[in-house]
């Protein structure tokens, strides 16, 4: 931006100087022409007056002038052919590369032809034009440098303002001493941040209230289901349904917690050393209680692999990845493979539509193969807060593949 401002300013200065210089040169050229014509008139009048009294003394008084006289005999052998046939008046004649101004007058059967070599004047104008162009270019370069430095002051403040907005710096963005235009931008951003903060606060309060209101009836339903599943004299099918109800209630509670977490700033709590393989097995077992699918879990993970993470956030991410994989797998298996610090979860479903890959982490994105919920959006949200990376693609052998890069947080043995 600062370079474009400097170039624009330098170009404007260059154009102004060149236009002004051209106007000045044209004005000077016009005045030179008037001066030359006046000189010719005066010299020719002086020569003609001298000729009336003393023909031999009728010579021009300037070294760049030549006076020719054609007498009664009409001998014009000394006169250049380009000038001999000129009618009385003022003329411009070019002989070779030289330009001459010629004044022609008739008096007492004698024609006077006065020629003036104007090359010296043209040379001065050319030198002036060259000097003007060089000066204009030099001033444009100086303006470019000065404009770049001056624009840097403004862009530095804009960059600093952008950094504060990006980092979410507390306090007002508008500061004393700001330029009027920059302060106007800062005031608008402060107003926008205030409105955005109010909206987020309302969303967080709504999500917290909704989560609280849901938990009360769900807790009662879960308790009844646990009692139903624990009755000794009921068929095994009733026990299974009771366990499914408990698992379904747990899933609803987890979803409510996920929505609440999305409405807040997910910040990791104290980190603990978690064994990755048992964590995945535990989450998978809880998911299979409510799933009526013949899908197996295959782990390609070293038994000693550990993860330094907030236990609640780590379980939340693993649960959402496995739940997503189980939802789209009707049969076959879900593979969890660890390669270095990268954990890949590959399902046996149809995979992602190619046009959906860039938006699978968006909340409630409706793609070619249905609507995506908040699961993957929550995974990206938690990964960003924890310093992890997440990506999605279609696995080479079929199915969708979600990859987590834990970086230095994971240790494999």
How would you describe this structure to a colleague?
- There is one protein chain.
- The protein folds into 3 domains: 2-135, Beta-Lactamase; 180-259; 270-411, Histidine kinase-like ATPase, C-terminal domain (Heat Shock Protein 90, 2-Layer Sandwich).
- 55% of the residues lie in helices and 19% in strands.
- The chain has helices at 2-53, 81-84, 119-167, 180-230, 236-263, 276-288, 311-327, 375-386; strands at 65-70, 89-95, 98-107, 110-117, 272-275, 294-300, 306-309, 331-339, 342-346, 366-367, 370-371, 389-394, 400-405, 410-411.
- The longest helix is centred in the N-terminal third of the chain and has 52 residues, at 2-53.
- It starts with a helix and ends with a strand.
- The mean pLDDT is 79.
């Amino acid at each position: 931006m600062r370079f474009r401002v400097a170039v624009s300013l330098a170009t404007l200065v260059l154009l102004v100087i060149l236009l002004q210089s051209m106007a000045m040169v044209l004005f000077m050229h016009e005045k030179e022409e008037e001066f030359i014509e006046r000189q010719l008139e005066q010299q020719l009048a002086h020569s003609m007056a001298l000729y009336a009294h003393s023909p031999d003394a009728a010579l021009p008084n300037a070294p760049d002038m030549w006076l020719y006289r054609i007498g009664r005999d009409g001998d014009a052998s000394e006169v250049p052919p380009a000038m001999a046939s000129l009618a009385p008046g003022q003329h411009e004649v070019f002989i070779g590369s030289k330009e001459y101004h010629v004044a022609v007058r008739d008096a007492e059967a004698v024609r006077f032809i006065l020629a003036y070599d104007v090359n010296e004047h043209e040379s001065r104008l050319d030198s002036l034009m060259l000097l003007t162009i060089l000066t204009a270019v030099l001033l444009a370069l100086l303006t470019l440098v000065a404009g770049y430095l001056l624009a840097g002051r403004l862009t530095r403040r804009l960059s600093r303002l952008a950094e504060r907005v990006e980092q979410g710096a507390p306090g007002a963005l508008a500061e004393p001493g700001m330029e009027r235009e920059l302060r106007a931008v800062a005031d608008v951003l402060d107003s926008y941040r205030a409105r955005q903060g109010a909206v987020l606060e309302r969303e967080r309060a709504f999500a917290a209230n909704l989560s609280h209101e849901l938990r009360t009836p769900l807790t009662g339903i879960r308790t009844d289901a646990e009692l139903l599943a624990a009755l000794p004299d009921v068929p095994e099918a009733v026990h299974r349904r009771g366990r499914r109800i408990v698992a379904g209630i747990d899933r609803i509670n987890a979803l409510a917690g996920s929505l609440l977490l999305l409405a807040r700033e997910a910040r990791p709590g104290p980190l603990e050393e978690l064994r990755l393989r048992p964590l995945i097995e535990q989450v998978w077992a809880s998911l299979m209680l409510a799933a009526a699918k013949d899908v197996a879990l295959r782990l390609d993970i070293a038994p000693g692999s550990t993860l330094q993470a907030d236990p609640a956030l780590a379980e939340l991410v693993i649960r959402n990845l496995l739940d997503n994989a189980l939802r789209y797998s009707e049969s076959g298996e879900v593979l969890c493979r660890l390669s270095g610090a990268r954990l890949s979860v590959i399902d046996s479903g149809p995979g992602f539509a190619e046009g959906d890959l860039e938006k699978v982490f968006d909340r409630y994105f409706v793609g070619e193969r249905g609507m995506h919920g908040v699961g993957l959006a929550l995974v990206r949200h938690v990964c960003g807060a924890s310093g992890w990376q997440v990506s999605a693609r279609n696995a080479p052998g079929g199915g969708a593949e979600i990859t987590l890069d834990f970086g230095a947080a994971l240790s494999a043995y």
